[in-house]
Amino acid sequence: MRDGATLDGFHIGQVPDTVGEEVSDFATEWEDVQFATRVWERQTADGYRVDLRVHVLRGQRLTDLDALRTFLADYHERDPAGWQLTEFTHDDGPGLVGDGQAFWLAEPGVAVNVLADPAQVDGDGLLAVAYGVVRQQEPESHFRP
Question: Which tens digits make up the pLDDT trace of 128-142?
Answer without folding.
Answer: 999 999 998 765 444
